[in-house]
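Structural prep section.
Before we set up the soaks we want a predicted structure of the protein with 2-keto-D-gluconic acid in place, mainly to decide which crystallisation condition to try first. Input record follows.
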Amino acid sequence: MSETVLLMGPLLPATMSELDSNYTVHRFWESDDPDALLDSIADTCTGIVTDGGRGAQAEVMQRLPNVGVVSVFGVGVDAVDLDYCKTRNIRVGNTPDVLSDDVADLAVALALATCRKMVTADSYVREGRWPIDGAMPLTVRMTGKRAGIYGMGSIGDSLAQRLSGFDMNIAYCNRREKTGSVYRFVPSLQQLAREVDFLFVTAAATADTVGSVNAAVLDALGAEGYLINVARGTLVDENALLERLQTSSIAGAGLDVFAEEPKVPTAFYELDNVVMQPHNASGTRETRTAMGRLMLDNLAAFFDGRELLTQVV
Ligand code: 8YV
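Run finished without errors. Recording the tokens verbatim:
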């Protein structure tokens, strides 16, 4: 008999179909009566599959006493109640590394789109302003500028490689200095912000990092500085950022992530110094397929009695 798994939200069709072939899958987000669903699978459900945004809350896991594994389709596990998982000895797996290249690519794209005003420029052409108004106002160069990377994990590392290609002077802030890193370590985020032209946020959301890109850090980045966030919206004080964008107290922001997704404060829509994406940095067919594979492999490893390939808890 196959294991019973609770799927919190939709995934790629191919990933879901493989899940359906190997397990008895219950779709949480499609249920009209989630309470009744949890009651009906309370005795049988042994695994949860979820994504980075939906995660797995203790209130759900408490209703499923036989769950032994949470397999996350995503690297971020901030939406999974890890403390609760530890108390129950529930294994948690995620999908690191396979998405780092695409997330780093999008960080570079957002940085260029922001300082080169690519979205404004696109509208300039589409609206027919070029023949009438002539050349658009000049923009700001990225090549050769100073880059700060907040969070030097696998994504930060992939990003640094790309920024090296832009001849950028790269420094980073991390929980601890990385031995052997060729990049300059700056222990304080505020100091890093003060010393760079582009501040890239690639850190995981933890109790230590949530809210850490605060008003003081944004002020340190200053009127010539750009903030690029491909990590989690919760790391940034969104109101402070909005206010500084509105008053041009920072030069611009490239944002893939927001504090309360999918809600984005509409005041951002009015600003031409921000370029936004709907949390899509890992959203290529190639990477999402690889994430699906790793998520499935983690699940299979658990049910085979093996170690998860990429285990967080
Ligand atoms: C995904 C992410 O968009 O990996 C993460 O932590 O936030 C993203 O790659 C998400 O998990 C899929 O919904």
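Observations: Residues 285-303 form the longest helix (19 residues).
Flagged for discussion at group meeting.
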